[in-house]
Specification:
Elements (H helix, E strand, L loop, with lengths): L1 E8 L5 E7 L5 E7 L6 E9 L2 E8 L1 E3 L15 E6 L4 E2 L3 H18 L4 H7 L4 H16 L6 H5 L13 H13 L3 H17 L1 H35 L1 H12 L8 E2 L5 H4 L2 H12 L1 H10 L12 H5 L25 H8 L3 E5 L2 E6 L5 E6 H37 L1
Parallel strand pairs: 2-7
Antiparallel strand pairs: 1-2, 1-6, 3-4, 4-5, 8-9, 10-11, 11-12
This protein binds zinc ion.
Length: about 400
């Protein structure tokens, strides 16, 4: 459903027609720069079916100008098209947006009746479910387990039944974030499990690895996962269309209108994610050692403590040529990480970023903001997949310990 709002920039008086396509979310903030005076404009839309209410948050208010029938041809006022779930281009205006919406809907219907269809359907609960998962996760971080079960009862999903523990729910939640591609990503775990099951020596190393993980890595990893998830879902309105396009394998045209310009917040995301990702990636490196027939802590030509002391950008080098693990080496760019981490990144033009990186003298690079958001989402997807592997293997490990105790 599309709504039209006539607003104006309070700084320079520029009239703006906002055409807003409502998606699944009840509340959405939109932020952009006025094309006439470059001031930031911010408003929010709240769904109150059959209506959607606008609230003027910063530097804008209602304006009573003539909204012509074919506004795409008119130069008298600025037109901003927004949609919560898909990206509309600047050039082709609203009709193009309708085509984009069709692409997504077609993709979605093509899953109906399949496992992918079930997973995609959970997407409607994602934001609400995040609030529940977050609350339970915080309780877990604080070692306060008394109310977790009550909190988790509110979790809604069509792929889960009965009473479930935190890890089951987190696994299900992650599958929704990755849907429908999660089926593909979970195959990596499946293959590794088969491999470790089939050889006694590998099974022994796997159990040693999981003991090491439980005693040395798990608490720290879970904290890092939690922090990045919190950042991501705080900025979910910004990331959502990119997540949607990436998960549905749709190309992102960079001549797009970006509904949310929370750039002052998104610009740090890649750097923070890169730091957390390259810390937690040790889990993949250790799995890879076993895959190669070595002890879990025996690298090709490194000791474990040497590996831990490596520069972050070198943490994936040990496995980047092994096909099963290549996926976890994608979308890591050290230049962008340096710029994002040290705040050397700015918006120079509408939707174009400039970032600086280098050891002695800083070199300048440019990148479209849409591309930046896409890279963030791609790496986040890998981060979520990594957590899936950790949950999955820890579950197998615990089951084994319990059966040994019997
Ligand atoms: Zn203005």
């Amino acid at each position: 459903m599309t709504f039209r709002y006539k607003i104006k920039c309070n700084t320079c008086g520029r009239n703006i027609l906002v055409r807003f396509g409502m998606g699944y979310t009840e509340y959405q903030e939109c932020e952009f720069k006025c094309d006439q005076c470059s001031s930031d404009i911010k408003f929010s839309i709240t769904a109150k079916p059959p209506q959607a209410i606008i609230d003027y948050l910063e530097n804008c208010s209602y304006s009573d100008f003539q909204d012509s029938l074919f506004p795409d041809d008119n130069k008298k006022y600025l037109i901003k098209n927004f949609h919560q779930d898909f990206l509309s281009t600047k050039k082709d205006g609203f009709f193009y947006s309708v085509l984009e919406l069709n692409k997504i809907l077609e993709k979605r219907f093509s899953y109906s009746g399949s496992a992918e269809g079930v997973l995609v359907a959970n997407f409607t609960f994602l934001e609400k479910n995040w609030r529940i998962v977050k609350q339970a996760w915080q309780m877990k971080n604080n070692n306060n387990n008394n109310f977790i079960e009550d909190v988790l009862k509110k979790y809604e999903s069509i792929t889960i039944e009965g009473v479930c523990g935190f890890e089951d729910i987190l696994f299900d939640f992650n599958n929704t974030v990755l849907a429908p591609e999660c089926l593909k990503y979970n195959k990596i775990a499946e293959k590794l499990v088969q491999e470790y099951k089939s050889k006694k020596s590998k099974r022994k190393e796997f159990l040693k690895l999981m003991e090491y993980y439980r005693d040395n890595l798990m608490v720290d990893h879970m904290e890092k996962f939690f922090n990045i998830y919190s950042d991501f879902f705080d900025l979910y309105n910004d990331f959502r269309p990119f997540l949607m396009y990436t998960n549905h394998k749709l190309d992102i045209n960079l001549d797009i209108n970006i509904a949310n310009h929370n750039f002052h917040r998104t610009k740090m995301f890649y750097g923070n994610l890169y730091e957390a990702y390259t810390s937690n990636i040790i889990f993949i490196s250790l799995l890879h050692n076993i895959h190669k027939g070595r002890r879990f802590d025996e690298f090709c030509n490194l000791t474990l403590s040497k590996y831990c002391g490596l520069d972050k950008s070198k943490k994936t080098e040990n496995f980047k040529n092994t096909e099963m693990f290549i996926f976890f080496d994608d979308f890591l760019t050290n230049k962008l990480r340096n710029a994002s981490h040290h705040g050397n990144i700015k918006m120079i033009d509408n939707d174009v970023l400039e970032y600086k990186s280098g050891k002695e003298s800083l070199k300048r690079y440019t990148m479209h903001y849409g591309r930046y958001m896409q890279i963030c989402v791609e790496l986040f997807i890998r981060f979520v997949s990594l957590l899936q592997l950790e949950i999955c293997f820890f579950y197998i490990f615990n089951k084994k310990i319990k059966s040994d105790l019997k």
